[in-house]
Design a protein that fits this description.
There is one protein chain. This protein is mainly alpha-helical. It has helices at about 15-20, 25, 30-45, 50-70, 85-95, 95-100, 110-145, 165-190, 210-215, 225-230, 230-260, 285-310, 325-345, 350-360, 365-375, 380-395, 405-410, 420-425, 425-430, 440-455; strands at about 150-155, 155-165, 190, 220, 265, 350. The chain has a two-stranded antiparallel ribbon. Strands 3-4 form a two-stranded parallel ribbon. A hairpin with a 2-residue loop joins strand 1 and strand 2. The longest helix is centred in the N-terminal third of the chain and has 37 residues, at about 110-145. The chain is elongated.
Length: about 450
């Protein structure tokens, strides 16, 4: 039975009913919908809009419906269209006309707005927990690899030697900012729309501040039209998901490269890899590849919701029924990706010797060799040219810079002395970095200490 049947002389076709219904996907908001309805019923009773007896009966029955849903005893129907009308229909079937009083002083417009905000508050907390676990994993790995030397890259070319801990802590900072973004987004989510009605408020003497306290919202949205019409908070939430997925994807791209024979820096554990149906030797980093692929999916969710919202006149439009699909998908995809990624990095094997070997034979001490000549009073640009010629010389001879003889060094500059060998040793290059936030062993230890201090 349609709740608006009084206005219509003709029933919707079955195809229109099916197309119009959202219960297939918004049924997962049943808990939020009942939570909001219980608070609303309590407010109606407190304000004398319905009797206390009616309020208590509605609340009791809603709690019973919730228990029955979670026990699998309730079947939702397309005929009732959405989660709101399904629950209200069940309520009315159980307690009769009193159940119809629940919708007094509210609209489905403010009802869905509060449901999705309650859902996003819960999802934001769940994502924050997962990100904290990821940060703990990165901190643990960094502590284990403070002394593990590896190449640092720019343009995917070996650039300067760093430590694996330093590399991991770069991602630690990215994911820390992701947590900050979600925490900041929560400020916009944590505002109550319930009580706004369809768009213009209500003639009943409601208490929206009471509703905010009951539902745990930090504040009340001050304009009812805005409260029901905008989904910028949901756009922002998906944007936070997309940025976090981007960071995961970058890290996964590196793990995919590092686990190849060409790099052989890490080995992904068997439990997070797959094989080939035709090539027996293959061990594929499929979990990392899937996270990388799912990043595009979350980007699509963001564009989906932005496009839904971009041309909507105020206030509510049926287009907003489609907001839940991208929100649900982004949250589900991010949570699954963060969880599997954390497990994957905690079980992977780091091939420390291969990393250090790659760092030693990549001419990554060239900048330090140039800095050595700077310390002798030669202008940096001249030093850059001298060392560039040395690198070309070493490439042609197939040797590392540190394998040059002193006579070879002096053929490029008389300023070279025996101390050059200590200066360009890979670990010396790392230790020599003095700036705050550098890759030096001491700096990395200081970064880890700061992380612990800020917990």
């Amino acid at each position: 039975m349609k709740l608006w049947k009084g206005r219509f002389s003709k029933a919707a076709t079955s195809s229109a009913d099916e197309f119009n219904a959202s219960i297939e996907f918004d049924q997962r908001l049943y808990k939020e919908d009942i939570t909001g309805s219980i608070a609303h019923a309590r407010m109606l009773g407190k304000q004398g809009i319905i009797t206390l007896e009616e309020s208590q009966l509605i609340i009791k029955t809603l709690q019973e419906i919730l228990a029955d849903i979670e026990a699998g005893k309730v079947k939702f129907t397309i005929e009732s269209e959405d989660i709101h009308m399904n629950i209200e229909t069940i309520l009315t079937e159980r307690i009769g006309a009193t159940g119809k009083k629940l919708h007094t002083a509210r609209s489905r417009n403010d009802q869905i707005a509060v449901d999705i905000r309650l859902y996003l508050k819960k999802e934001t907390a769940a994502i924050d927990k997962l990100l904290k676990e990821l940060l703990d994993a990165l901190e643990k790995l960094a502590e284990e690899h403070v002394d593990t030397v590896m190449p640092g890259y720019t343009h995917l070319q070996r650039a300067q030697p760093v430590t694996l801990a330093y590399h991991l802590l770069a991602y630690y900072q990215m994911f820390s900012r992701d947590r900050e973004r979600f925490a900041d987004c929560l400020k916009r989510i944590d505002r109550l729309p319930l009580g706004s009605g369809a768009l213009a408020g209500t003639t009943y003497n409601t208490d929206r501040d009471f509703l905010a306290d009951e539902l745990g919202f930090a504040s009340v949205l001050p304009n009812g039209m805005d409260a029901v019409a905008d989904r910028d908070f949901a756009v922002e939430f998906i944007n936070c998901c997309a940025v976090t997925m981007m960071h995961l994807s970058r890290f996964c791209e590196e793990l995919i490269l590092w686990s190849s024979v060409e790099f052989s820096f890490v080995e992904i554990d068997d439990s997070f890899s797959t094989g080939s149906s035709i090539m027996p030797q293959k061990k594929n980093p499929d979990m990392a590849e899937l996270i990388r692929g799912k990043t595009g999916r979350v980007y699509g969710d963001l564009m989906n919701l932005l496009t839904i919202c971009k041309g909507l006149p105020l206030a509510y439009n049926k287009d907003l029924q489609e907001d839940k699909i991208p929100v649900f998908d982004a949250a589900d995809t991010l949570k699954a990706s963060v969880g599997i990624f954390t497990e994957m990095i905690l079980t992977m094997k780091v091939k420390e010797d291969n990393m250090e070997h790659a760092a030693k034979y990549g001419y990554m001490n060239a900048t330090d060799a140039a800095d050595y000549l700077v310390s002798k009073g030669i202008p940096f640009r001249d030093c850059h040219e001298i060392i560039g010629k040395i690198v070309l010389y070493c490439i042609n001879k197939g040797i590392a810079i540190e394998e040059m003889t002193m006579d070879e060094f002096k053929s490029f500059s008389s300023e070279f002395g025996e101390d050059i060998y200590d200066k360009i040793a890979i670990r010396s290059c790392i230790s020599a970095k003095k700036s705050k936030g550098s890759t030096s062993f001491e700096s990395v230890k200081a970064q880890l200490e700061e992380i612990k201090a800020n917990k």
